[in-house]
Amino acid sequence: MAHKFQAMWDATAESFREQTGQSIKKDPPTTFEDCIKAIEERQQLSIKQEPEEKSKIEAAKTHVLHVIEYLKVFGGIASQAADAAFPASSLCFNAILFLLDIPTDIHDFHIAVKGLFETIGPTLNHFKMYDEMEEFDNLDSGLLLTIHQLMICFVDICKLSVKLRQSKSFREKLKTKTKLVLLKDDSGIQELLNRLESLSKDHSRQQGTQILILASDSNSRLRKFLDRTSLVEKAVLETQVNVTRLNDSNERREIKESSRDSLKMIKEKLGIDDEVTSSARLCEKLWKASVSGTGDWIRHLPEYSNWAPGINSQESSVLFLSGGPSTGKSILTSIILHRLKEEAEGSYQPASGRLPRILTGSYFFSTEKSGAGKDGEDIKPLHTAIKSMAYQLAEQDPVFETALSQTCNRKGVNNGFLRDINCKKLWELLGIGSPKGHATHYLLFDGLADLESHATEAVNELMEIIGSMDQTKSSVRILVSMRPEIPKPLSSQHLEIVMESHNEDDLRVYIDDRLKKMDILQEPNEVSTRVKKKVLGLSAQVKGNYYNVNAALERVFKIANDDGTENEVDMVLEASREGHNTMFQSQIAELELALSAQEICELNELLIWTIFIKRINVTVDILKAALFLRFRKHPIQPLEKKLRAKYSKVLSVTDNKVVEVVDGMREFLIKPRLEPRRIDETPRFSATITITKGDRTNVQSFLWQLMHKINTYDLVPEDSETRKPTKESIQVNEFDAHLTIVRRILQLIDEDPNPNTEALGKYALCFLPDHLSDLKNAEVAGPDSLKPSEKREIGNGLYKLFSHPNNIEKHWKSCGWVVWYGTKEEIAIFLSWLADESVTGHLGYRDRIWLKDTVAKHKTPARPLLSDLMNMLARRWLQDSSWEAPTVFWWLERYLTMVGLNDNNNNPNGVGDAPGNDTTSGPGSREMTVAEVENWCQREFFKGIEPGSLWYERLGSTYHGRREIDRAADSYRKAIDLHSQNPLCFERLAEYLGTTLDGLYGIRGAITEAEKTAKSIEKDESPDKGMLIDIYLRLADLHYRLGQQQPAIEYTDKVLNLEPDQVEVQYRLLRICLLNSSRETYAKFWRRLTRNPEDQHKTGSLTAILQQLTSDENSEDLIMNWFSLMEAGDFQTFLDETAIAIDIVQRQGQSDVKAQLLLYEGIARHYSKDTGTLTGTDIDSWNQCLEQYTVSTRYLPQLQASTLISAHHFDRFRAEENFASKEKHIQRLRELALKNSPFVISATKAYLASAYRFKNVEQAKEVLRGSMSSALDMLSDDEIENDLAGYSHVAQIALSCGDELNALSAYSQFLGSPPGNDPLGWVLDFDLESARAASRDLQVAIKAKFPDLPIFAKQLEFALEHIDSKILSAQNSNDTGNVSNTKGLEEVRSRLRRLVECRTQFRNVYVCDGPCGRLWDFENPIFVCKYCCEVTFCPECLEKLKRGNERIFSFGGIVCKKDHDWLYLPKREKKEWMECLMGNVRVGGRLENGVRKDGKLVTVSEWLDTVKREWGWGSEDIKMDSGDA
After folding, report:
1. If we measure between CA atoms, which residue out of 82, 85, 75 comes closest to residue 32?
2. What are the start-end ranges of the H helices in 379-525?
3. H-helix or E-strand containing 1423?
4. Can you give the pTM of this predicted structure?
């Protein structure tokens, strides 16, 4: 071989001499160092050149040095196999030196050389791996030959380039082509470059063989070679590999998380996260508060029996649960809801094998609001209730979940659309009144009486929906808990239960329970027994009212504690017979006696805000702020303590510190005025002014100032708010309340921001127009009127609000809820007050003229009224950086949407784009674009001002906030072009480029921009550490995404060197390490984070990071990657830190976060042990996880904990030999299974069914009957989007019940993506010649029209249209020869239509749960565990699992054991794939070595009918499904 290499090099050297006249053989041979030295010397000769020339030479030098590094490596390899006098590397170095010996008159050749070496460099990049090898004895001869050929090819390129440089024609071309002339000229260099690339690819292919040879060698140097070789593949096809890597990673994550992502997407689209939580918590709280035995009586009422499950009632499907306040409606509703859930879990069994799906949705309206101002959900409570119920139904039923997911994904269905649509249409759109398949929806509404007056419309809408229902159909059943005074729909046939007529037994049970908890009247003596009997008799005396019972029991308790008499108890019981009205009045009277005059004054102020505040929760902090505005001081005793003690008879405080009026008390606290207010303010004072000394000027000045003060202030004897209060009654008047609130709000706006009143700021600025409107309406209705001084006070406040924008400016932090600046209806309220002469007539002349002539007479009065405010906002938006740009833009945009872009005041015809005179509230129908608002600002306020860098920075931030990323990037580029030094511009531009989908161009562009940002910050004398950390983290992430480990590590090191102490930064750094499995960086980070300089553990170092992890959408992948990177000793540190974090979140009441941390704790404990089996200590953490309260029945951490616990008990069941021990584990599996919806397949139910099938398959089927019913319903409806989930469930259920043949049939319906680069051509491959011809013509047409688009998009749509037109043309032709062609076209169309119908099945769903992440497809088979739910392994990872010597860090790797059994799914084959595409499936036969033999082909519908019969469905059920389909 050495002789052969020598001959090759001799021929190459001779050819170089003949072509160029120069010899590359020199004695002594040229070394790498000689070559570098010669290049440096030649550069020195160009020192006197112009800077531009010098840069060209420098660039050429850079690329040359890059290439000779690789030639040095090649030379080291070649020298091992050739005994030559002139080493190969020396010949290459000499060739380069000849090439760079460029005469001074053709320095443009430097540019051409630069272009040449730029092209060569990437081709040689991946050979860098060889520079870490210490010897090459074991390299394959094929690889050595390729390396020699590569070097020779390089010498040939240099030879031809030198020859070209010497020709005159080439010098002429240099004048025009420069850099690319060597590559694009027809000289032959490009051909040689192609050969160089071809040899490079040959080298890569030969690596595979060499790797296999080296695999058995344990030599550390060869293992190092293997590690480097694994990187070579990435470098050879860098772009393709990395793009594929990114796409595959995303697809696998999407596949793995598709179900929970569907629910997450639904919740986000509906926007009801907090509302679902608060309603569910209230329901759970009520249910837990109920005493055992409460509501038992309802089972025996015919009204309930006709409504409840099991009765196909034709009477009515609507049940009203009516009763007065405090009669137990809500508690009974919660009890009914839990009983319905029990029915759904299987206590009700149908006569046939098809299990009806009982789904429940509930919403408990509450006095507690979300606190989001006028944009909150509380403004449309019935919308919230309907959306919340839809989400609950989706959680319980995959069929409904899929349908709702499709609805939410429809074009145009967004938060705004769902907010604005009316309730009836929302009901129909979300489908809660249209059950899917054989389902019944039970919908429970509670707390209608708690809705405020503004929600009367919601109550009416609900009744309208109920009235329009076909109430004889039993598939939707509604329960409404309400007060009797709420009108029911006239057209409604309904059932009704009146609480007061039936709840006496509940009250008796409740009284007995309270007496036990109070520990009174429990002694077994005669007096105690007699008194207790009397107290229990309250249940028959209070007319079903719990409030009266509680009030009486509190008095009895006080008598018992004070050692009172039986007569005193009798008096209390007698008083309770008088009804709750008397009881309430008595409570108020007692409180008036107990409180001082000052305390009553304070309480009345609290009642004003608690009763009349709108749409938000009245919190303790808000009331503190209100009291400070009123009294200008804080009380000595904390307000919350007063509320819970002194004022508790009329006000209550919830656990969330929300203050409410005691239920039923409100009407006794609001008192109408019996006679009109006194408004006579005629001055009743006299004054004598005596001037004893003073000149004329001083006297005039004194009198002038005196008159000014008199004109400015009202002179009253003593302000009613500052004089010592007299003792009054506990009551509020509605008119006085709104007046008080308006005065307080105007006072707050006029003053500077004050921390003591901050809690009230948002409400005050947002709801001022509402209270002004209420005050005006109350005055019009009479009998009350405002005093002139009060009107003037309001006039002053409103005028200042609009004429002095600094009031808004100084309170900007409190303007988050304000919408009146863009709402016609609310602006009209302000205008009506300002137009009132009695309100603004006292203002100065100019002020009055402005209001009368400029504002009132304008066609759009809002325009001049808000002009000064908009001027200030425009300046804050485009010429100031202190406020958030998107927020300021939102104000301007809503204002312009209301008034229009153009001022049409001078338009005689009124033609323009200002809105009409309608009174619709809120913005108009069309959103303004950022460009339109910008142009308007420039035209109105910035004429002649050229936009600068700050202007474009602000535009960029605005676009970024609106997610208009392309426009944001353009604006940031303009800011940078105008010399902006704001790092945010570079950072946002980098962020944009990093998220573009244009291959790796975007990521590389992002790196460039991010590096500019870093350099810009680093130049500062005091660089922004936070911004620098952010940029370094972004650069690390981008380099990891390109597979460039080394620069990524360098940037993470830079972050570590800056010693970030913010938890967010530390978490981002950890996240980058985990997502990229960067062991080196992780080790540094872990040590820095958890150890102090003395190498001791820093307690609490991970707690905040763990809390961050729980909210990460990729937390499952991240935690497993984290465990995979941990060393043995790290697990204990992790466990210690997790325990601290659990304690913290428990104190904070974050039960959902605690559940997730307990899940991690158990997993960490499992991995910290050498054994791979689950133990009791692991299970303890997961059991605690399940005990935490979470709203969702499918909360992922709890589902995972349930899976892990179930796996433990299933494996213990299999291992135990004793029947009693086996039964213990079966019982635990049953308990866990009952926590799941009966219609959702879960790992717990799969394990339970698998355990049962060992002895009784029918018992296994009973566990999964509801899930199979749901799955078959999904496959029997018209929604093809349901099919993928349906087949998945059928496959898993069949496998869990031991029906492997049907499982294989179901798995075959997962078509997966067609293979290859031309999937459409692969699918449209026919045996019939006419079809093949039609297919070829079609593909030509598609590629001509859409050369770059992927198939199942525009191409498929075009293909169908094209084939349809061809068939129509053939049918219209009289040519009899077209019959064959038409048949071929029909064949193609049939397959295309099936492609459209089966589009949801073109996903490679099953992914290996091992570290490889392989997909089941045409290249890879996969094994499915017969016991674990949807756990799959490729053959290689399954072998790892069976060997047990390598841990698999995934949930599948924890639960699946080496003694489990697996179903083999072979590689997909085209024949089977085509059969399934055309609606067929292979069934029956037998399994031999895991492969089906002798099966037959049937249609999918025939197979599904067979499955239904096997699961006990009757012929009527099957027939009904066939009819539906």
Report:
1. 75
2. 381-396, 398-408, 415-420, 423-430, 456-468, 504-518
3. strand 1422-1425
4. 0.64
